[in-house]
Design goal:
alpha+beta, four-stranded antiparallel sheet, 1 helix
Length: 126
């Protein structure tokens, strides 16, 4: 990007141990060049800069802003799913307890037997 010291910047690796997104950067387009970690972004969008130049680099700031926006969008979606699961659990027969779920599956426990069940969402043909 014009005005940047880096030729490529990516933020597509999540470090499971540190619980942060890693911002990697390369100075050249040479495939043999090792990348440098220039920043880390936590789940709340807080950025830790590991290279001071990152704070003033327009390309780095663009990549970081995109990731923060994505993190916030994902968090909002997770909140919606959690609220939906809670509402389903309230309205579900007391014989079942919703344990967790995602965008297409609810994981339910039958209280009397302890069996774990899945409720899948599928689209029906018109």
């Amino acid at each position: 990007m014009n005005g940047s010291i880096w030729s490529e910047i990516r933020c597509n690796f999540y470090d499971e141990e540190e619980h942060v997104w890693i911002v990697d950067a390369w100075l050249t387009e040479d495939d043999n060049e090792p990348g440098d970690v220039i920043a880390k972004i936590n789940a709340s969008g807080k950025v830790t800069y590991l290279d001071e130049r990152t704070q003033k680099d327009p390309y780095a700031q663009e990549i970081i802003a995109e990731k923060i926006k994505s993190i916030k969008k994902d968090a909002a979606l997770e909140d919606c799913v959690k609220n939906l699961i809670d509402e389903i659990d309230k309205r579900l027969s007391n014989a079942y307890k919703v344990l967790e779920g995602n965008s297409d599956t609810l994981y339910v426990k039958e209280r009397s037997t302890g069996k774990h069940l899945e409720i899948k969402v599928t689209e029906l043909a018109d």
